[in-house]
Amino acid sequence: MTTAVAAGLGATLLSSCGSQQLITFGDMASGYNREVAFMSIFAIALSVIIFVGVSYALFFTVNKFREDKNTAEPAQFHGNNRLEVILVVVPVIIVMFLALLTVRSMAILNPVAEQSTKIDVLGRQFWWNFSYPETTANAGGNVTNGNELIMPTKQDVALTITSGDVIHGFWAPNIGGQRAAMPANLKTWNVDTDRAGIYQGNCSQLCGGSHANMRYKVIALDQERYDTFLAAAKAYRAPEPATRSPEARGYNLFMKGKPSTGALACAACHRVQGTTAAGAAGPDLSFFGTRRTLGAGMWEAMTPEHWEAPDAKAELHAWIKHSPKVKPGSLMPTYDGSEYLVTGKKVKGGVLTDREIDDVAAYLRSLKLPEEADYWNETPVYGSTDAADNTSAQTAKTSSPTPGGNQ
Fold it and tell me: Domain Cytochrome oxidase subunit II copper A binding spans what residues (predicted)?
């Protein structure tokens, strides 16, 4: 019965990036969803009983007292006191019963245990940052990742969410309920899943021009793999590029920009663990080379070559060159000399040559966790319509750009 109700409740959507992926709050691998499904059984059953009862009473009354069957003057009477009491008392009992069920479920779902894995979530136009407040990186600051939430399976994960600008909606239906991300307000609640896999998350609150492009991935790992990721992320320091390599030239541009052409430094807005780049206006790029998504999930690079694949390289190049063109509302500066908006005002962007943009991209691709800590490897994509995706995230196809994320 629970499975049938859950299936009926499932809100099934298809992601437009890469292979299509099932999104449903009928996913019973999540304890949160199982509890909501249990509570819903009673609500649905009572609704069906009320519908059938009211429909029967309506049709019975209409049929019994049809005009062609009753030509005499209707009897005049005060009313039916017993019926009136029943019509008041029964709904009150039903509402009280459902209220008690709701309170029970809230008492189970809302408390945050001390032993929960704690992750801080920041939503901004139009991207997400995930920080691990209990894990301090050896290079300083908390371990943080942009647009890809890594969490352990088979335990509660306490998400503390806020927003840096407008109200956003954080919702990955497969792992739990949705919550509003509001400026200057911290909300903590539990999500969980018993099944390792990659799940789709989206912003569920209209928040601006690229609301539909404000996506993220949830990568749920078994405890051993999660511990491996966290240990590697804690010890991570960005590699030092080889002298005169494209990565070295890209590192210099990333850190300093190109003042002669007005090109701004990426480090002013982005953090890279183990370097002096400590910007907070954009997503953390410390493990960009390990990530498989770009533009807050607008593009995916899941072929074995990842960001070295020609299509993925082209997407990354276009993103760095003119982010607002490929994602409306993106607040990244342009690097082709065109104008972009800053607090509602048009500002002329700086200029980098195509080779310089490729150098910056080469530096970003070099920012990788060790192979054993690559959380995408062999992690199945839940509900993907691509058979290869269901076998391994490594074999999925690279998606094509769509009109309209931030890194």
Answer: 114-232
Query: Of the candidates 172, 168, 260, which has an alpha carbon nearest to the alpha carbon of residue 217?
Result: 172
Tokens of 132: 């691990």
Q: Is residue 358 part of a domain?
A: yes
Which residue stretches of 219-328 are H helix? 223-235, 246-256, 310-321, 323-326
Query: 154-183 pLDDT, tens per residue?
Result: 999 999 999 999 999 999 999 998 899 999
187-192-197-198 Cα dihedral, nearest 10 degrees: -20
Query: Is the CB of residue 298 less than 8 Å from the CB of residue 147?
Result: no
Structural domain span for residue 328? 246-370
**How many distinct structural domains can be found in the chain?**
1
- Other C-beta atoms closer than 10 Å to the C-beta of 196 total 20
**Residues 359/246, Cβ–Cβ less than 8 Å:** yes
260 assigned to some structural domain: yes
The CA distance from 339 to 346, in Å, is: 6
Distance CA 223, CA 217 (A): 18
Inside any domain, residue 315: yes
- Residue holding tokens 């995930």? 130
Instruction: Strand 187-191: give its sheet, edge to edge.
Output: 142-146, 127-136, 117-124, 157-163, 187-191
Can you tell me whether residue 258 is helix, strand or coil? strand
Q: Which of 17-31, 79-93, 171-185 has the lowest mean pLDDT?
A: 17-31
Does 166 reside within a domain?
A: no
Distance (Å, whole) CA 288 – CA 360 = 12
CATH of the domain at 250: 2.60.40.420
Q: What is the pTM of this model?
A: 0.83
Helix (H) / strand (E) element for 133: namely strand 127-136
